[in-house]
């Protein structure tokens, strides 16, 4: 058995077809302009249909797949290259300029970003020193320059991350110290208030005792005066 696949098997992966309800031509006929493919295909996964075809191939029932799609999902499903013909090519295939070997695009967007930056810097450096970027004899120089650029970018990113972590730690320590100082100040204020309250209580008790002593002394003097008159 041979399978011939088209856009319909990739719609559930997030890639619109052409004449379906939300197809590219259907929407364009309504005056809605849409992109055929998403900005990146690297993060898309094969659909159940792709995996079913792989299962049929592994069971020996399916001998070959012919596809009009360029999304590379048949390859991502695990279908071997010798059992697949992609009529319009594959948007995810990259070829090494040295060994001419094909490779699928990585799904690591961060590394893609670093590589794009490094390639841009490498081309700028190459042009600035007067080397032709299409000269095959300069491939080694360009590759080495790009590798060094990638390493430098990664080192810079690591340094930035370390600096950010250090700043966060310093901020946390500073906040902790401030909180401890505030707590200590609050404790000192509470202790001072308690001491003042105790002093006020002691002064009140002393005044009360002195007042009582004065009253008792006055009564004693009054009693002595009465006793002397009787005598």
TrEMBL record:
Keyword annotations of the record: Membrane, Metal-binding, NAD, Transferase, Transmembrane, Transmembrane helix, Zinc
InterPro entries: DHS-like_NAD/FAD-binding_dom, NAD-dep_sirtuin_deacylases, Sirtuin, Ssirtuin_cat_dom
Highest taxon listed in the record's lineage: Eukaryota
EC number: 2.3.1.286
Residue intervals passing through the bilayer: 110-134, 146-173, 180-206
Family membership: Belongs to the sirtuin family. Class IV subfamily.
Name this polypeptide is given: protein acetyllysine N-acetyltransferase
Species per Swiss-Prot/TrEMBL record: Dunaliella salina
